[in-house]
Structure to design on (267 residues):
């Protein structure tokens, strides 16, 4: 796993007086990729004048900094991402996204002030971590990490069961969350769409085209891409879409240390 510190310097628009320096810890481990992707999409989408600077960690500390003393001061949860804004520290990606949207007074559509529209955003954000996110992550591990890095053959029944669960969530995505609307909250893109797209791209990164045979989901994906811009969309998903090749270059020994826990979790 790689660990980087993202220093985000927000330059407010001329009509605002808001200025702050933020640091956001983000792990580039494949199993945590949605958090990083969402952060990058939000930075590009929410803040037109956001400057993103990546500070890579040394080889000796890479992948372990969230267990270090300094990261522990930000959050004892020791998971990424984590945000520090002056003396204020915050964990959990959804909470961080909401905090950034509120603090920087982003355009209303990202996190709407309208009670019912915001409720739609919160509804998806409250469901996703045990629904689409977990199932997308599981598919990715079963198809990529476990066989290619841990060297373990995944039983077909486990793959079939994970795919059945994923298909159930994708059906909910179309029938419950998207329905006949352009986006989850209505006519405009929101935080819910940003979180959703990075979760759906996980199984795509494993070689599973979840958009095939799902015209409604595919059309929604195209609208999200158009709303945030193709360049940012492609940049944010570059790592996950190249994951099957990237694993060949990874140090497999580090993940082997966690093999019993990983197999217990996914198999």
């Amino acid at each position: 796993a790689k660990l980087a510190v993202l220093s985000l310097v927000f330059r407010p628009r001329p009509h605002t007086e808001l200025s702050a320096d933020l640091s956001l810890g983000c792990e580039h481990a494949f199993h945590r990729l949605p958090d990083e992707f969402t952060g990058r999409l939000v930075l590009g989408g929410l803040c037109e004048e956001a400057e993103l600077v990546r500070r890579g960690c040394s080889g000796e500390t890479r992948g372990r900094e969230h267990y270090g003393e300094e990261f522990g001061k930000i959050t004892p949860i020791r998971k990424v991402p984590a945000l520090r804004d002056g003396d204020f520290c915050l964990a959990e990606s959804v909470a961080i996204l909401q905090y950034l949207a509120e603090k920087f007074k982003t355009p209303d559509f990202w996190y709407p002030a309208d009670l019912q529209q915001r409720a739609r955003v919160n509804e998806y954000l409250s469901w996703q971590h045990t629904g689409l996110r977990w199932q997308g992550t599981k598919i990715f591990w079963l198809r990529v990490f476990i066989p290619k890095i841990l060297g373990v053959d995944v039983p077909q029944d486990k793959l079939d069961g994970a795919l059945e669960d994923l298909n159930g969530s994708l059906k909910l995505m179309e029938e419950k969350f998207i329905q006949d609307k352009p986006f989850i909250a209505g006519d405009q893109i929101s935080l819910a769409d940003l979180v959703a797209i990075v979760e759906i791209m996980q199984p795509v990164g494993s070689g599973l085209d979840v958009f095939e045979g799902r015209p409604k989901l595919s059309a929604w994906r195209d609208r999200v891409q158009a709303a945030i811009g193709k360049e940012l969309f492609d940049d944010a998903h570059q790592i996950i879409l190249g994951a099957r090749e990237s694993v060949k270059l990874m140090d497999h020994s580090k993940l082997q240390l966690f093999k019993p826990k990983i197999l217990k979790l996914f198999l």
Remarks:
- The beta strands are 3-10, 20-27, 50-56, 82-85, 88-91.
- The domain at 110-266 is CATH 1.20.1050.10 (Glutathione S-transferase Yfyf (Class Pi); Chain A, domain 2).
